[in-house]
């Protein structure tokens, strides 16, 4: 009986960890989709560790970004009112 309880608890913990990871990825809003573009288009800004500088650079070069990243940058641009 105790093994079944432990197994069930582990399954619940694993499910919650997966949900947390998915939520963080969604909250991230596409950072992963933009990193290759950011490395290619804005390496100097990445070295400053300033998210705002990287975002500004990416928005300035939005036409050169991938479709997924472009959508994210358009949302950021709209939020900033730029």
How do you describe this structure in short?
The protein contains five helices and no strands. It has 82 residues and is mainly α.
Describe the protein in words.
The longest helix has 27 residues, at 2-28. The termini are far apart. Residues 18-27 have low confidence and may be disordered. The chain is elongated. It has 82 residues and is mostly helical. The protein has one domain. The chain is 82% helix and 0% strand.
Please specify the SSE layout and strand pairing.
Layout: H1 2-28, H2 31-41, H3 43-47, H4 51-60, H5 67-80
Q: Largest beta sheet, briefly?
A: none
- The helix-and-strand class reads mainly alpha
Percentage of β-strand residues: under 5%
For the record, the count of structural domains works out to: 1
Gross morphology is: elongated
**Number of DSSP strand runs:** 0
Assembly level: single chain
Task: Give me the Rg, rounded.
Answer: 19 Å
Structural descriptors:
elongated, single chain, 82 residues, mainly alpha
């Amino acid at each position: 009986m105790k093994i079944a309880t432990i197994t069930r608890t582990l399954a619940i913990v694993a499910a919650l960890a997966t949900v947390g990871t998915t939520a963080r990825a969604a909250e991230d809003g596409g950072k992963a989709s933009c990193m290759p573009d950011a490395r290619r288009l804005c390496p100097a800004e990445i070295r400053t560790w300033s998210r705002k500088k990287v975002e500004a650079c990416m928005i300035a070069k939005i036409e050169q970004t991938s479709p997924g990243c472009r959508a994210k940058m358009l949302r950021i641009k709209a939020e900033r009112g730029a």
